[in-house]
Design brief:
alpha/beta, about 25% strand
């Protein structure tokens, strides 16, 4: 089952304690699409400028990614510049140039409108709902957001959440959105606004899943080399959604709790590969065996016997 993703394709300039890279390919839709494409077909909707040449799109070549929804507009492609300290869980934004992304108005090609699995990456919640208005009968809708939309468009974001099945955000955003210091209380409040499932990303501490019936905690994979956390959250979401779309959405009974738990581990696997290099240099070089083997290693991390 194919996934529709709407988000950004961008050029990033990133500095970490372990190196620096300028004008590298990034963007939420880019990371999500490459990650998901290891599991299923992806249909990408985003906008780029005249400076986005054929060479920049090579990361999509040979993958299960349909680019019919990638708009090209006069002007420059969205750019982001940021840096990380030794606490790699949070970036400090130094500069944002929206460029053509400022007037981005997602219009879905007609064959995209039948997608049953939709991921709304970090864009204006008004635009997120506009996308949903164009999709005919989605089975699974997931979305991300950020502190800017929480602080400036809270009412609009809540309207979006009423139409979302799976909400994926980081820990700080969850607390800010719910105005609760306690993460469990924050999760319960967010779930009351509409989403069936909430996944809270916690960086190097892993992730937590909350629903009406269960709580699940997954660790992060212990890595010796971490070069660039940019795109880790979108790679995580790509793994989660890719696995669900490929393995669980065709079931008449819907997505099981065990299926969600497996999906979160696959998401964690994809995020762990992503941070091992700048841009998509590691994420784009994987085989499915690499992914499956690290999934097995994740299982060993948390296995213990009954007493």
């Amino acid at each position: 089952m194919s996934i529709l993703v709407v988000g950004s394709v961008a050029f990033d300039s990133v500095k970490t304690p372990f190196g620096e890279a300028k004008e590298i390919l990034g963007g939420s839709a880019t990371y999500f699409s490459v990650s998901s494409s290891y599991f299923t077909d992806v249909r990408l909707v985003a906008v780029v400028g005249e400076d986005f040449g054929d060479g920049h799109g090579r990361v999509f070549d040979g993958r299960r990614i349909d680019l019919a929804g990638l708009q090209r507009r006069p002007g420059k492609t969205f750019r982001w510049r940021g840096e990380y300290g030794f606490d790699l869980n949070e970036a400090r934004t130094l500069e944002t140039q929206l460029n053509v992304f400022q007037d981005f108005s997602p219009e879905l090609p007609d064959n995209y409108r039948d997608c049953e699995c939709v991921f709304l990456a970090n864009i204006d919640p008004d635009l997120q709902r506009r996308v949903l208005d164009q999709v005919r009968k989605p089975k699974l809708v997931a979305c991300d957001t950020m502190n800017y939309w929480i602080g400036n468009k809270l009412d609009s974001l809540k309207k979006t959440l009423e139409r979302v099945d799976l909400f994926i955000i980081n820990e700080a955003e969850a607390r800010e959105l719910a105005k609760e210091a306690n993460l469990v209380k924050a999760a319960n409040k967010i779930l009351s606004w509409g989403p069936k499932t909430l996944i809270v990303k916690r960086g190097e501490y892993g992730s937590l899943m909350f629903s009406d019936s269960t709580v699940f905690s997954a660790p992060a994979y212990p890595l010796e080399s971490v070069f660039d956390p940019t795109g880790a959250g979108d790679s995580f979401a790509g793994g989660v959604m890719g696995y669900l779309a490929a393995n669980h959405l065709s079931c008449s009974s819907g997505i099981s709790d065990s299926g969600l738990r497996q999906a979160i581990i696959f998401g964690s696997v994809m995020a762990s590969f992503n941070v091992e290099a700048f841009s998509l240099n590691r994420l784009s070089q994987l085989s499915y065996n690499d992914i499956a083997n690290r999934y097995k290693e994740f299982k060993k991390l948390t296995h213990f016997e009954d007493v």
